[in-house]
Amino acid sequence: MVSVERTILIVKDWIIMNIEQKEFTPNMPIPSLYEISRTLDISQDDVEQAIRELITEQILTEKYQEGYCVKPEPAFFYPVNELRSITAMIEEAGYTAGTIIISQDPEIPSLDDKKLLNITDEQMITVVERIRTADGMPVAYCLDKIKKPDLDYLHLNDKISLLQILQDNPEFKVAYATSEIDAISYEPYISNALECAPEESLLLFKQVHYNEEDMPVLYSMNYFKSNQMKFQIKREMK
C-alpha cells in the first residue's frame, strides 16, 4: 500500500532524512513508535503505517527482538546485463578477492549437465567447487562445470578469475552467457560455507557461458548472501 495521508509522508520523510544525515545508520534500531509519535506529534498508528511502507520499500527492516532497523546497502553490485567476473565485482567494491578451492575433479555429467552443456556422448566434465572471499570473508559459493575433463592449468594460483583462465584457451573463450536468478531460503551445506545465520536467505545466480561458436563451455552456479548483493539490469523499450 502506498500512503496518501500527509502525516504518514511526514514520518517517512523524517526517517529518510535522518538516514541521509547519518543519524540513523545501517543495522541501527530507529526510535520506538512512541518516541517518533511524540517527536512529530503524529499518532502511533500513522507512524507504524509509515514504517511498514518503508519496510516494503526496503529502506527499513524488522529484526527479531531488536525492532525496526535501517537496512544496510548491499556490499556488492553486479550488473546482470554485463558479463563480469566475481573477482572484478569484489575488487570494484574495494576488497581483495580470494579463492578457497574445495575440490576440482573430473566427473560424469548428469542428464541436466549434458543438456545444458550440449554433451551427447560419454564425455567427462571438470567440476570446480570454490568459496570466493573478500578480504578473507566468504562472499560466494561457486560450483562450476566445465565441458572438458583435463583442465590441469586451472590449478594455477596466480589467476583467481575462472573466466580469465578460460579466456586463455581459444576453445573456451567466453563470448556471452544466459542467466537465471533464484531465491533460496536456506541450504544447510552452502549456508554454512558462507557463514549464514539460519534466517539469512541466498540468491542463486545460474549462468551458461558460450564461446564464439555458440557452443556452451561452462555452467556456473554461484550462491550469494541475499543481503550482500544488488543485481541490476538495463532494459530498453523496443
TrEMBL record:
- Please name the Gene3D superfamilies in this protein's record: Chorismate lyase-like (3.40.1410.10), Winged helix-like DNA-binding domain superfamily/Winged helix DNA-binding domain (1.10.10.10)
Under the heading InterPro entries, the entry gives: Bact_HTH_transcr_reg, Chorismate_lyase_/UTRA_dom_sf, Tscrpt_reg_HTH_GntR, UTRA, WH-like_DNA-bd_sf, WH_DNA-bd_sf
Q: Which UniProt keywords apply?
A: DNA-binding, Transcription, Transcription regulation
Q: Does the UniProt entry include the keyword Cell division? A: no
GO terms for MF: DNA binding; DNA-binding transcription factor activity
BP GO annotations: negative regulation of DNA-templated transcription
Enumerate the spans annotated as UbiC transcription regulator-associated domain: 92-230
- Provide the HTH gntR-type domain boundaries: 11-70
Question: Pfam families per the record?
Answer: GntR (PF00392), UTRA (PF07702)
Q: Which residues form the signal peptide?
A: none
What SMART domains does UniProt report for this protein, alphabetically? HTH_GNTR, UTRA
Protein name stated in the entry = GntR family transcriptional regulator
Q: Which organism is it from?
A: Macrococcus lamae
